[in-house]
C-alpha cells in the first residue's frame, strides 16, 4: 500500500490518537487565567482543577479570598483542557473547556458550565461542538440593534432615548 507524502504529514501541534482522532497540543508555554463566578457574584473561595480529556488532573490551585485563578501550562500540553471550580461554600461546581489556545481569559461561570454540558451531550468537547452550543445558546435579535454605522439622529433610532 502506498501513502502519499502530503497525507502522511502531521502538523507540529497535533498528535494522532487511536481510531484516527487527532489531539492538538499547545505549541509553547501557555497561561490560562480568569475568574470564577456564578450568576450573582464572584466565588472567592474554591478549588480549581485543570484536567485533560481522560480526567487526569494536570494541576490544582486553591483560591482564598480571591476569585482569580491562573495556570501556567508547559509546551506540549494537550487540549482541550477542562477547568473545574469546586466552591468551598458547597455551591454546584462550575466548568469551562479550553479547546482553543487563542483567547486570553477563560472565566469559569454558570454559562460556560452550561455550554460544556451541552457540548458533551452532543458528542464531546470538540471545538466545533463548543462553538455551536455557544452560538446557538446566545439570543440574537432579528436585526442588528447596535448603533455601529448608524448615521442620523440617535434620538430617533429604535424609538428614541429610553
What can you tell me about this protein's structure?
This protein has three helices and nine strands. By secondary structure, it is an alpha+beta fold. The strands form three sheets. The protein has a four-stranded antiparallel sheet. Helix 2 crosses helix 3. The chain is globular, with a radius of gyration of 20 Å. The N and C termini lie far apart (71 Å). The N terminus is likely disordered.
Can you lay out the helices and strands and say which pair or pack?
Blueprint: H1 5-8, E1 14-16, E2 22-25, E3 30-35, E4 46-51, E5 57-63, E6 68-73, E7 78-79, E8 81-87, E9 94-98, H2 110-121, H3 127-137
In short:
With 162 residues, the chain is of the alpha+beta class.
List descriptors.
four-stranded antiparallel beta sheet; three-stranded antiparallel beta sheet; single chain; disordered N terminus; alpha+beta; 28% strand
